[in-house]
Amino acid sequence: MQAATKKKVHNYSAGPCVLPQEVFEQAAQGVLDLDGSGLSILEISHRSKPFEAVMDKAQALVKELLDVPEGYSVLFLQGGASLGFHMTALNFLRPNGKAAYANTGEWAGRAIKDAQLEGTVEVVASSEDKNFSYIPKGFIIPSDADYFHFTSNNTIFGTQFKAFPKSPVPMVCDMSSDIFSRPVNVGDFAMIYAGAQKNMGPAGTTVYIVRNDALGRTGRKLSKILDLKNHADKGSMYNTPPVFAVYVSMLTLDWMKRMGGVAEMEQRNNAKAELLYGAVDRLPLFKGTTAVEDRSPMNATFVLEDSTLEPSFDAMWKEAGINGLRGHRSVGGYRASMYNALPIESVQVLVNVMEQFAKKHG
Ligand SMILES: *Cc1c(COP(=O)(O)O)cnc(C)c1O
Predict the structure, then answer these.
(1) Is residue 116 a contact partner of residue 142, using CB atoms and an 8 Å limit?
(2) Between the N and C ends of the chain, which has fewer C-beta atoms within 10 Å?
């Protein structure tokens, strides 16, 4: 097969997002012939040996990269992190129980709404008063809650929990946009879930890392497809898994491992964040939109001091081959999503554009 030459683009998309070029090439090969089986990943049975090997490896890589303790299951399910909101309540909230939530942005708010369908929700911390521009700290999590839910990284607003809350009750975390970007102590959580398309792979699967003994305790009768205990008992193979998304996630996880694991990813991400936020702070035409100590290394949000200059800035970064820099429609301004696979060279290209722009208009 002739290798297609792709136009060089610096992809700052918030998700789906940049993945390693070598993963795209391996994935393309798997579509043609999965590991010499003579079958495409798209046609092979999910009960076949080659696909079982893919699923086993994907689960093992998650456990290895995050140092997952014994007693946890790794599941690759469908429905996006958005279904994870409702799954959390269905699987952890007793019908007469209460759940504690931190409201730190759009996704956290949606998780709260879904939990409210299933029981009582106490919002124990919120940054809504300042348009989610900071991470609340020092809040109290009630010890009679069934669980505490928070969002580790707020993709839209550009804030991140640098330190995780200490909770007297099981913690559930939506880590969609910063899983595998830094080491975490999985043992502190009853469940971590994350849509693949922000830092792990393509859209189409959501990873759930769940403590087995935390499942099946609400007394609810659930449809099998909504029951995490069922999925865990069946090794994430209760029904047809999203085979291609699991395959490409496995390839990306394997790439992370070859690169040195999540500690190395964290170093790279910090270097990229320092470079970009350095320019935002140094150049007077730009302004960050979040509290400095809560800035996300994954999604850097900023605005122009003079918004009438936006068309000029937009033309310059587009000219430089940059894609996906516009902020989320609910926030405006700009958002540079710098997931694991975005090379620091791409950040340098953006910083150069910002400097040129500052010279032109400063
Ligand atoms: C993108 C995102 C979601 C929604 O993910 P889907 O897979 O589109 O459902 C949820 N939470 C966070 C933190 C996200 O960044």
Answers:
(1) no
(2) N
Assign 246 a pLDDT band (cuts: 50, 70, 90): very high
* Ligand 1 contacts CB of residue 176 (under 6 A): yes
198 is catalytic: yes
Q: Which two tokens stand for residue 267?
A: 């170093």
Length of the chain: 362
**Mean of the pLDDT values across residues 239-263?**
98
Determine the average pLDDT of the residues in 46-55. 97
6 confidence band (pLDDT: 50, 70, 90):
confident
For ligand 1, whether the C-beta of 297 sits within 6 Å is no
Confidence check: pLDDT of 112 > 70? yes
Counting from 1 in the atom list of ligand 1, the atom nearest the Cα of 151 is 13
Is 3's pLDDT higher than 70?
A: no
C-beta of 327 in contact with ligand 1 (< 6 A): no
Q: Is 174 a catalytic residue?
A: yes
Q: Which residue has the tokens 């910090």?
A: 270
> Looking at ligand 1, which residue's alpha carbon is closest to its atom 3?
81
Instruction: Name the H helices within the chain.
Output: 21-32, 49-66, 80-92, 106-116, 228-233, 243-259, 261-282, 310-319, 344-361
Structural domains of the chain sorted by starting position, each given as residue range(s) with its CATH number in brackets:
23-259 (3.40.640.10), 261-361 (3.90.1150.10)
Instruction: Please tell me whether residue 346 adopts helix, strand or coil conformation.
Output: helix
